[in-house]
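testing teh design pipeline on a random one, pls ignore if ur not involved
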C-alpha cells in the first residue's frame, strides 16, 4: 500500500474495524489500564480478563505523550509529510492533552483533533480522515474533513448497567439511580463529549427499538449514511442492529465496532449502540 502524504493516528478508544484500519494505514496508539497497581497497555490485555476483574478497582488512562511521539515518528519514517492525530473526547479522557504535548516534539507538522466522541463515533471520524488522506488531500483538508464529521456524528447506546459510567465519573450518580430505580434498561447519547441519559426502556428489546428510533428521526433525505454498530461482547446483536438499518437505507459506509478493554472498563459488558452521520450530496 502506498504511503499517503498525510498519516492518520488515533487512540484505541476508536472502535474502527481492523480491516479498515489496515486498508487505510491508520496507526493506533493503545490506551492504558492499571490493575492492582500494575500498568498494562490495552494491547496486552485480554477482554475476558478485564471483564472478570472489573470489580478490582481498575483504572484507565490515556496513552502517554511518548506513545504518540513514537507513532508520529514511525509515520514520518514511512514517508508521511504530516500527521493528523484524532483522540477520544477530551471530556472523557486526557488523550487529547497527551497528543497535543506530543505534537510539539516531532519533526513533521501535526494536527491534533478532539473528536468529542468515542467508540464507533470516533471510529467514523477516523475513517473519514483516513479516506481523505488516502485520496491525497492536504493536512488542512484532512483536518477540515475530520472536524466536519466530528461535528455531525451521533452516538446512541444502551448498557446493562450504568454503574460503570458512574464509577468512572462519566455520568452523575443521580441520573443513574433515576434510570435504574425501576429495573429499566438505560439508554444514553454521547454528543460533544457529554453523556446524556435518554428515556429508558423496560426491556432489552425496547432499548434496541429505541436506538433505531433515534436513528430514524435523524434521516436526511438524499444524504449518504455512514454508520457503525458498536458493542461490548454482543456481536450478534450488533450485526442484527446493522441489518435493521440496512433494510431501510443502504449505507455508504457500514462496519461493526468492537469495544476494547479500556472502553469495557468504563461501560461494563453488554453495550450495544449505533453511531452515524449523514453526508449531504456534493454541490456543483
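output:
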Amino acid at each position: 500500500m502506498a504511503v499517503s502524504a498525510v498519516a492518520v493516528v488515533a487512540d484505541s478508544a476508536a472502535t474502527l474495524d481492523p480491516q479498515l484500519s489496515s486498508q487505510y494505514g491508520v496507526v493506533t496508539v493503545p490506551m492504558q489500564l492499571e490493575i492492582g497497581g500494575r500498568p498494562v497497555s490495552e494491547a496486552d490485555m485480554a477482554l475476558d480478563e478485564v471483564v472478570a476483574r472489573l470489580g478490582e478497582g481498575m483504572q484507565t488512562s490515556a496513552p502517554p505523550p511518548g506513545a504518540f511521539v513514537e507513532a508520529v515518528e514511525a509515520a514520518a519514517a514511512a514517508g508521511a509529510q504530516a500527521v493528523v492525530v484524532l483522540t477520544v473526547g477530551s471530556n472523557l479522557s486526557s488523550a487529547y492533552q497527551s497528543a497535543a504535548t506530543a505534537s510539539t516534539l516531532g519533526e513533521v507538522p501535526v494536527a491534533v483533533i478532539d473528536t468529542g466522541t468515542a467508540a464507533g463515533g470516533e471510529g467514523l471520524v477516523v475513517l473519514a480522515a483516513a479516506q481523505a488522506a488516502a485520496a491525497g488531500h492536504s493536512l488542512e483538508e484532512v483536518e477540515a474533513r475530520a472536524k466536519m464529521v466530528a461535528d455531525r456524528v451521533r452516538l446512541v447506546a444502551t448498557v446493562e448497567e450504568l454503574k460503570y459510567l458512574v464509577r468512572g465519573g462519566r455520568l452523575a450518580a443521580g441520573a443513574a439511580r433515576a434510570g435504574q430505580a425501576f429495573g429499566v434498561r438505560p439508554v444514553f447519547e454521547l454528543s460533544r463529549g457529554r453523556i446524556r441519559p435518554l428515556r429508558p426502556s423496560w426491556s432489552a428489546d425496547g432499548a434496541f427499538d429505541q436506538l433505531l428510533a433515534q436513528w430514524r428521526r435523524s434521516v436526511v433525505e438524499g444524504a449518504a449514511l455512514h454508520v457503525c454498530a458498536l458493542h461490548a461482547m454482543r456481536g450478534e446483536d450488533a450485526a442484527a442492529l446493522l441489518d435493521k438499518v440496512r433494510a431501510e437505507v443502504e449505507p455508504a459506509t457500514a462496519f461493526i465496532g468492537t469495544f476494547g478493554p479500556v472502553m469495557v472498563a468504563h461501560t461494563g459488558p453488554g453495550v450495544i449502540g449505533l453511531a452515524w452521520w449523514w453526508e449531504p450530496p456534493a454541490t456543483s
